[in-house]
Structure formats: C-alpha cells, structure tokens
Design brief:
By secondary structure, this protein is mainly β. The protein is built from 2 helices and 14 strands, in the order ββαββββαββββββββ. A hairpin with a 2-residue loop joins strand 3 and strand 4. About 10% of the residues have low confidence.
C-alpha cells in the first residue's frame, strides 16, 4: 500500500545566505539544475529531508540559520519529506502571495505513484522579505511501504505563482532502499 501525505511545516523565514548558495556562489549566479532554479526574480529549490521533525524543531528556535538533514535515499517504512524553499513570489492587491504546486511521483518502472498532490506553498501570506528564503507551508511527505518498488523514484513539483503567472518545474530523484535487518 502506498502512503503519500502532504505535510504542513511551520512558517519560517530563513536568511538567504543559508540556502541561497544553491543559486549563488561567491556572488556569481549558479546555473539552474533540475531541482533548483531562478527565473524572472523567482527562485525555488526542492530538497528531501529524512529528519522532518528535527527541521521543525530547529525552525522554532531563534538562530541565524537552520541545518537541514538532506537525503536522496528513502528507507522502506521511514518518512522523507520534500520541502521547497523559495524567494520572489509576487504579492497580489491585498499584499499576499498565491504560490501553489502540484507534486507527482513516478515509480522506478516509470508509472505514476498515487494521485498528484496539490499543495499551497504560500497562499494568503505576505512575500518573504528582501534577501530571504522561505520554507513553503505545503510539502510532500512520502513513505515506501511493503510491496512498493525499490529503486529510483522521480518527483516533479510544478510551481505556479498565481499573481505573476510565473511557472517553474522542479524535478528531483530519490532512491528507495530496503530497511536494514533488525
């Protein structure tokens, strides 16, 4: 049985220097990758974490930045969460962003894994401040259950800023592996 859930994360603004290095290095723009892009003043990156609870706990403590346990491996029975960091959403007349995403996941066999997930990344909330990255509210939680295939899964996040009409597609793979014997 396949379990896929949308996980709501605590709102947090992260100083841009913490994660922005994925788009800039030594002041120079880093070329776009399938999972991290910057276009028309909007930027986003898709990251998998195997420790979402630690991320949430760290976000609740005041600090200049947050360490993220990033992974590209999903161990059977253990959750991983795909989070999106973004900057540059455009405010509507009320001063709020309307940033949404549609997540799809394909199995190692290339078949759609479950139904697409519609997520509100940042809706009816003000844009992050200048030079800040924002962790999206809506994210993608995944668990590889018994009977699910092992191997490389492909996640696609189709992001839409409903105000500016900017669209972005981020794609990232993770590898599902068997849990270690106990």
């Amino acid at each position: 049985m396949t379990r896929r859930i949308v996980t709501l994360m605590t709102l947090v603004v992260i100083p841009i220097g913490v994660v922005f290095s994925q788009w800039r290095e030594n002041g120079r723009v880093v070329p776009n990758t399938p999972w991290s892009k910057s276009e028309n003043g909007f930027g986003a990156t898709l990251v998998f974490t195997d420790k979402p609870d630690e991320l949430l706990a760290a976000l609740e403590k005041p600090s200049p930045g947050v360490h993220l346990s990033e992974t590209s491996t999903a161990v059977r029975g253990m959750p991983i969460v795909g989070v999106i960091y973004f900057t540059g959403c455009v405010a509507n007349a009320a001063g709020n962003c309307e940033l949404v995403a549609r997540f799809t996941t394909k199995t190692p066999e290339g078949k759609l894994w479950g139904d697409p997930i519609e997520a509100e990344l940042w809706v009816n909330l003000p844009p992050p401040g200048k030079d800040q990255l924002q962790l999206s509210k809506g994210n993608l939680g995944l668990v590889i259950d018994p009977g699910d295939s092992l191997g490389v899964y492909k996640v696609k996040a189709e992001i839409l800023d409903r105000v500016s009409k900017n669209r972005m597609v981020l794609e990232r793979d993770f590898t599902a592996v068997e849990a270690p014997a106990k």
